[in-house]
Design brief:
The complex is a heterodimer.
Chain A lengths: L7 H18 L12 H4 L3 H15 L7 H4 L3 H13 L12
Helix pairs in contact in A: 1-3, 1-5
Chain B lengths: L8 H5 L3 H12 L3 E5 L9 E4 H17 L6 E6 L3 H12 L3 E6 L5 H14 L3 E4 L4 H10 L6 E3 L21 E9 L4 E7 H15 L6 E4 L6 H14 L2 E4 L2 H6 L2 H10 L3 E4 L1 H10 L2 H5 L8 E4 L6 H11 L9 E6 L6 E4 L8 E5 H5 L12 E5 L8 E5 L13 E6 L11 H8 L11 E10 L2 E7 L4 E3 L2 E3 L1 H8 L11 E7 L3 E8 L10 H16 L3 E7 L14 H9 L5 E6 L1 H13 L1
Helix pairs in contact in B: 2-3, 3-4, 7-8, 11-13
Classes of the chains: A mainly alpha, B alpha/beta.
Chain lengths: 98, 593
Amino acid sequence: MPQLAQSSATTEIAEWLADRVADYLCLDPADVTPTVPLAEYGLDSVLAGALCGDIEDRFAILVDPTLAFDYPTVELIAEFLAAETAQGAGRVARRGAR
Amino acid sequence: MTRFAKLGTEVTRCETFIGITRQQAEDHGDKVLYTFLPEAAGEPPERVTYHEIDRAARAIASGLVDRGAGGANVLLLYPSGRQFVEAFLGCLYAGATAVPAPLPTARRHHVEPFLGIVRSADVAAVLTLAGALPMVAGLLSQAGVAAPCLSTDTDPVGDPDAWRMPVIGPDALAFLQYTSGSTSAPKGVMVSHLNLIENERLIAKRFAAHPGTVSGGWLPFYHDMGLIGQILTPIVTGGSAVVMSPVAFLKRPYRWLKLISDYGVQVSGGPNFGYEMCAQRVTDEQVAQLDLSQWRLAYNGAEPVRAETMRSFAARFAPAGFRPRAWFPCYGLAEATLMVTGGTSRLEPVVLPVSAAQLEQRTIAAPENADDERLLVSSGAPSAHEVLVVDPERRLPLPVGSVGEIWVRGSSVARGYWREAAATARTFGATTATGSGGFLRTGDLGAVIDGELVVTGRLKEVMIIAGRNIYPQDIELEAQGAHPALADRISAAFSVEADGERVVIVQEVRPELFKEASPASVAAALRRHLTQRLELRVGSVVLVAPGAIPRTTSGKIQRTLSRQIFLDGDLPALHEESEAAVADRRRITAAAS
């Protein structure tokens, strides 16, 4: 798998995501490690739906609630979103390569 | 006389739901029955009239009969939208038994429940969307099921004008509801046409619904409240419904309230967690855009109703015109088709503060202090059913004010579980010690107080999380796959009331395991695996030594006792990771015991 460089866009998105996840789960954002699977923090389908809603509002793209299962960590979601927004808005998220 | 009495006598005389739908199509023809909002905001809604739905049902029914599936069990796999309703009514019109189920994805944790239903239901045909056909056909052949699969959204399935009314009576099955039973052993509740009609009469009466009533919501159609309460009730009453997808609701709960506001919806509802999501996530700017003053009936059921949620929702949306008098807490279960009780004769639902500790002992008493307080919400007075509160061990009916198992008898109690004679006899044919028979044992605990039914908890071990029935056996089975060292170890799963119902799993491990893997990593692996496989949030993971989980002499896991020991703080944990709310609940209980 190609090594993706940690761009500033990805970092900013990751921080925002960690903040959202922390908000839903009543955690301190500092306690949400970007490389730890969200399932370990307790993200279920209700919360995954909520995260998708926020992502859709901020990035103006459509995402499927399976996003959190296809990209199981904050870092992976951030990389996906950075790539999606670099390539233009309006595409429906597809299952990513692992 | 209630408003229900104003329903056309032709409708009330119909023996089957087919007759009712046909009569309403004749009376209301070009009136819009359903408005389906698309998932993407900004796209136009899809409107369907009574006549159009009747015609689509006749076409599908003809197609089913042509293929020999009239009178058989037909599986329906659809997202919650127009095609589902057409297919559902198409089954009924064919004299077939509809078996609604969520459309599976290829993910393993969706496939197993799907296969469980397919094997249990003895399916003769499958209806789905064209886009899903290859995947569904693949899953069926994987299961060794040879039923034909048809798509109903592209090519015509049959000739609507060739349709003939099937010769069936009111006791014929309308559909099977698979919301009961664990994933490994699902049970299909058999709902007859008579059961459905009788329960709809009760719902329509309690909703005071009539042809002018605009209802709607976000509930999934394969779930009893979504199907019967939200989708089928407008057909019976001659009203209309505006509905949105459950996925769209989870992404943006505001859209439900916007639907109610934009369309002047008067009757809408759902499980408690839906109201909780709105109270937490809708912004002040969004509240300012809503007008909820027409919303005269907000039903809340399918999972425990929480007074705290009702209060925070009402406070949050008061500026939008939401009226607390709209609250309609209700109680029901699939085994009783849907509704048993609902609403209140008082101005607002009764909220009863009781002692949490005493409630664990099945006693209603005043709270000792603020930490001990639990708020119960009444679910309304029994009307169409006979409701008893019964001592579950001795089967003696209990006096008013005592907590016991809720037993129900009436014409909308379903006929049993499909092909499960033993479970049917245990659940549906119960007799009290005083000789009264034919009762449904609900497995729920409650009491009748001031004439209203107050549900207090559950006798069975099933947990209700975000409107889903979660069985401990399913969690325990999945736990074995979380780590190689857990493959032959036992666990006990149960829930505790801690700011909502939270799952606790107690897992036996050999302490030697911690030489190779840290306790934290094992706990994390277990939590991650359960969340991924079951889409379930775990409130607490506790690792214990072998033998720490209490078992009967025959080796059966004692989950209720495990739960008590956990709450008392007496479980010898090797390692524990609990959400703050669970730890607080345990601390309070342990201090009081």
